[in-house]
From TrEMBL:
GO terms of biological process kind: signal transduction
Taxonomic lineage from the root: Eukaryota, Viridiplantae, Streptophyta, Embryophyta, Tracheophyta
Originating organism: Gossypium australe
Sequence intervals crossing the membrane: 848-871
Membrane topology field: Single-pass type I membrane protein
Signal peptide: 1-26
Keyword annotations of the record: Cell membrane, Glycoprotein, Kinase, Leucine-rich repeat, Membrane, Phosphoprotein, Receptor, Repeat, Signal, Transferase, Transmembrane, Transmembrane helix
Location of the protein in the cell: Cell membrane
One GO molecular-function entry: kinase activity
Chief subcellular location: membrane
Descriptive protein name: Putative leucine-rich repeat receptor-like protein kinase
Length: 892
């Protein structure tokens, strides 16, 4: 008789629970309207919700408490659907963010929400569906945000029926519209964002949008818009406050902008604007923000700009502006951000900068400003946090007791003249985390107070000065460049977070042990080349997983390559000019990402392994020059499709030149741009960096940086190669330099070599070649270094502008005749005597300028490349400018 009790208790509890449910449900029904709840559930059922973000949306629940749902607090009608995917705060959240995106279909059940005024589906992923047409029936909508939600196709014109709509944000989707006529129905619209929609064909865009009576903000960046040249009456659109037309093809600043007197913000960056900055900005007197960066504007800064005394943000960078910065700039009393970098402004650094009390960020870098900067220039700049003015010809030597009125976080004064003493005023910068005072004429002992500053730098560039002394510790978290100074003593200790360490071209000595073995490291880039480091490379790379670029060239290193180095995924390994030895280990196969491998000028030996062709398939530069390698050249090497520079010179390599060399496709194209060469450049802090390499061309070592990707060469000289020169070599029509000299090659010179029309340097000297110089050689119009001396060539030298311009030395030791030799040919083309050998070798001197002109000619952007051709300073070429300019050229 004990069992019934629990059963009845159970029933009782069940009853209580069901009563409770009924009551709760009744309570919630006060708010959530059943038909709307069902509509929402139906809507949910057609969505894909990978992260279960809508887990609160369940049958029977109070839909007004569901996530993303906002009901009216008295009527209970659903008023808002806030279903934007929450954006990630940092990179680590990226995966979670992707997961949180809703996908799938949008069910018309939403039409049941008669009072819906806000619909936000932004940041989700409705990939490949169109914006549903029924949205045009959601009559109560005042806010519709579908931005960045992967919608595609034409924008439904019936959205124009939403006459209550105040905010319409469709930006960042893959949409298009042939006309914007539908927008004219949106009579309440205050905010319109269609950025990235293709409106190329919507030539009515100005007429329609400017007639909207309430419009405050218009965002049409990246829409393929062109200027509407027809006269426009903009009477109705006095209200417009924000206008964003950046990233279009406007070609000039639209005149109608200046009749919008209420404008506060104008974004016209990257809009292909050419010609002068118009002088009408004085009309837009409420202007607080003006962005004209990334265009082709080529005037001076018009005076009307200086009268905009409400302006807070002015960006004119990345243009071709000329002339001086007027002292009237001091009138911009509200300006907080001023960016006039990268153009061609000249004249002085105006004293009136000192009046800009509100200034927080000043960027005038990469101009032609010159003269002396004094303490007065900074007098009132108490709020300055960023002073970026590198690459001008300015001199700043304040009184040694000067205390700056500002506390900067970022100071960039590279290329200024700040020396010879180390700038004492930096002592007072308590918040400094980014400092570039490279190439600043500082010739001083590194002050200990600087190394002991309490702040931790993120970025420190002191390169190309004449700083002396030892550095025991670098308190820098991310990037250090100390190259080309006179530092001595052991390598400094660094923070484990450091990613870039560049110590090239100093006199650091001692071993690598402390740096490599005593800590784990996040280092990605390590340059210690051109120092006095000795001993062997310790086998401690197991904790250096992130290392990609390693340059230890030109030190006094001995020993073998440590095995742990091959456990990394290196992009570049440079050990050139040391005293290392040993064979190339098979573990080198574990470095498939190598783009540059330079082991030249050591004592490495053994044969060149065949697997190089398979396993190091990304190689662009392979230099094994001046070692003791022997054996044959393996045919597999021909699989290196990206290889542009092959240097096996000065070894003991024997056998024949493989016919398959014509497979080097990167050498066989005449049509390449620097950008296509993978792995040679990467980004940091908005600057591009390019890998550099030392190449031997025309008997001369030079360092190539930003244009490395354009250089192609093959040097097999001074080995023991036999057989004929394969005629297939002539397929490598992109080759600029070819050197087979000092081998045992026999037979005729293939006639086809005359087809290698880009060839600038050709050296076949000191072989056993016979026959004539092929007449096709007269096609080699860019040849400026040529040597076929000491073979067994006969006959007349073909006639061309180039071949006759070389000295006798290029031809001597043969049986050649005709100009430029003084020996005349007989009627059979046979000389009677070999001419004099008395002249100097001046004629064979390298004229790389010429080469580059040819390159530029061929590649079409010489003018851009020229100033950056050789790397003057350090191990890596900073070419932020180059990238930008090239970007512009592409646009053109
Ligand atoms: C309802 O909302 C309005 C405006 O949001 C607010 O003023 C009012 O106090 C709310 N009423 C209740 C009962 O919460
Ligand atoms: C969107 O979804 C598609 C298909 O599921 C997927 O291929 C794509 O990567 C997603 N895009 C984003 C930005 O999440
Ligand atoms: C639309 O949503 C995006 C992303 O959630 C947001 O950044 C943007 O400001 C919203 N647009 C409007 C007009 O509120
Ligand atoms: C600035 O450059 C212009 C040419 O762009 C030149 O005419 C002018 O003399 C230069 N001014 C100064 C101060 O160097
Ligand atoms: C600093 O500001 C004050 C007040 O605006 C002004 O009188 C003075 O001339 C300014 N000093 C400099 C050097 O510009
Ligand atoms: C190198 O790359 C491979 C394949 O991409 C990866 O499996 C391996 O973990 C990487 N090694 C290091 C040290 O990062
Ligand atoms: C250059 O190469 C690109 C592909 O990389 C090709 O589209 C273009 O037609 C080529 N141009 C010439 C002149 O061969
Ligand atoms: C040069 O070539 C001729 C044939 O053209 C040959 O008779 C002669 O032996 C060769 N001389 C040398 C040194 O190889
Ligand atoms: C070569 O021929 C020219 C005329 O054709 C003559 O003037 C010159 O003296 C000759 N030179 C020699 C070295 O025979």
């Amino acid at each position: 008789m004990t069992t019934p009790l629990p059963i009845s208790l159970f029933h009782f509890l069940l009853l209580i629970t069901s009563i409770c449910f009924t009551i709760c449900d009744a309570n919630s029904n006060l708010l959530c309207i059943q038909s709307e709840r069902e509509a929402l559930l139906k809507f949910k059922n057609h969505l894909i919700d990978p992260s279960n973000r809508l887990s609160s949306w369940v049958e029977g629940g109070d839909c007004c408490k569901w996530i993303g749902v906002v009901c009216h607090n008295s009527t209970g009608h659903v008023h808002q659907l806030q279903l934007a995917a929450p954006p990630p705060v940092d990179f680590a959240e990226w995966d979670a963010y992707r997961q949180s995106k809703l996908e799938g279909k949008i069910n018309p059940s939403l039409l049941e929400l008669k009072h819906l005024s806000t619909l936000d589906l932004s940041n989700n992923n409705f990939s490949s569906i169109h914006i549903p047409k029924f949205f045009g029936l959601l009559e109560s909508l005042t806010y519709l945000n579908l931005s960045q939600a992967q919608f595609q196709g034409a924008i439904p014109h019936n959205l124009g029926n939403l006459s209550k709509l105040q905010y319409l944000d469709l930006g960042g989707n893959d949409l298009k519209s042939k006309s914007l006529q539908w927008v004219s129905g949106l009579s309440s619209l205050q905010y319109l964002d269609l950025h990235y929609a293709n409106l190329h064909k919507a030539t009515d865009w100005v007429q329609v949008t400017l007639k909207l009576p309430s419009l405050l903000e218009l965002h049409l960046s990246g829409c393929g818009l062109q200027n509407d040249p027809s006269p426009i009456s903009v009477n109705s659109s006095k209200s417009l406050v924000v206008l964003d037309l950046s990233g279009n093809s406007l070609s000039s600043v639209p005149k109608w902008i200046f009749s919008l007197h209420g404008l506060v913000s104008i974004y016209l960056s990257g809009s292909s604007l050419v010609g002068p900055i118009p002088d009408y900005f004085g009309n837009t007197s409420f202007l607080e923000l003006l962005d004209l960066s990334w265009n082709y504007l080529n005037s001076s800064i018009p005076n009307s700009l200086y009268s905009l005394n409400r302006l807070q943000f002015l960006r004119l960078s990345q243009n071709q502006l000329q002339g001086t910065i007027s002292s009237a700039i001091g009138n911009l009393s509200s300006v907080t951000h001023l960016d006039v970098s990268e153009n061609q402004l000249n004249g002085t650094f105006p004293l009136s900068f000192g009046r800009l009390e509100s200034l927080e960020t000043l960027d005038c870098g990469y101009n032609l400003l010159e003269g002396v900067v004094s303490e007065t220039h900074f007098y009132n700049l108490t709020r300055l946090t960023t002073l970026a003015a590198s690459q001008n010809r300015l001199r700043f030597e304040p009184n040694s007791s000067w205390i700056p009125p500002f506390q900067c976080e970022r100071i960039e004064l590279g290329h200024w003249h700040l020396g010879p003493k180390f700038p004492q005023w930096l002592k007072f910068q308590k918040n400094l985390s980014y400092l570039d005072i490279s190439d600043a004429g500082i010739s001083d002992v590194m002050p200990t107070w600087f190394l002991n500053l309490p702040t931790r730098f993120e970025y420190l560039n002191l390169s190309s000065n004449q700083l002396r002394g030892e550095i025991s510790y670098l308190n820098v978290s991310n990037f250090v460049d100390l190259c080309s100074n006179r530092f001595i003593g052991p390598l400094p200790r660094v923070l484990p977070t450091l990613k870039f360490l560049i110590l090239s071209n100093n006199s650091f000595s001692g071993s690598l042990f402390e740096l490599l073995c005593n800590s784990s490291s996040r280092m990605e880039v390590l340059y210690i080349d051109k120092n006095l480091i000795s001993g062997d490379i310790p086998d401690c790379f197991n904790h250096w997983q992130d290392l990609e670029i390693l340059n230890l060239g030109s030190n006094n290193l001995i020993g073998k390559i440590p095995p742990s180095l091959w456990h990394l995924n290196l992009t570049m390994l440079n050990l050139r000019n040391n005293r290392m030895f040993g064979e190339l280990p098979s573990t080198l196969q574990n470095s498939p990402y190598l783009v540059i491998l330079d082991l030249s000028e050591n004592h490495f030996s053994g044969s060149i392994p065949a697997w190089i062709g398979d396993k190091l398939s990304n190689l662009v530069i392979l230099s094994l020059r001046s070692n003791n390698f022997d054996g044959h050249i393996p045919h597999k090497i021909c699989d290196l499709q990206f290889l542009q520079n092959l240097d096996l010179a000065r070894n003991n390599i024997s056998g024949v030149i493989p016919k398959c060399f014509n497979n080097f496709s990167a050498m066989a194209t005449t049509n390449k741009t620097n950008k296509e060469v993978h792995g040679l450049s990467w980004n940091l802090y908005g600057d591009s960096f390019s890998l550099s390499a030392i190449l031997v061309l025309k008997g001369r070592e030079d360092k190539y940086g930003s244009i490395l990707g354009l250089v192609t060469s093959m040097d097999l000289s001074t080995n023991s190669l036999i057989g004929e020169i394969p005629k297939e070599i002539a397929s490598l029509v992109g080759l600029l330099s070819l050197n087979f000299s000092g081998n045992l090659l026999t037979g005729n010179i293939p006639d086809s070599i005359g087809n290698m029309e880009l060839m600038e340097s050709l050296d076949l000297s000191m072989n056993r070649l016979i026959g004539e110089i092929p007449p096709s050689f007269s096609n080699l119009n860019f040849l400026n270094h040529f040597n076929v001396s000491y073979n067994n060539l006969t006959g007349q030298i073909p006639t061309s502008t180039q071949l006759q311009s070389f000295e006798n030395l290029s031809y001597m030791g043969n049986h050649l005749c005709g100009p430029p030799l003084t020996m005349n040919c007989t009627s059979k083309g046979i000389p009677t005597y070999i001419a004099n050998n008395g002249s100097s070798s001046e004629g064979s001197k390298v004229n790389w300028l010429y080469v580059s002109i040819v390159l530029g000619f061929v590649m079409g952007f010489w003018a851009v490349v020229a100033p950056l051709f050789f790397i003057r300073s350090c191990s890596i070429a900073y070419y932020r400018k180059l990238d930008h300019i090239c970007g512009k050229l592409y646009v053109f």
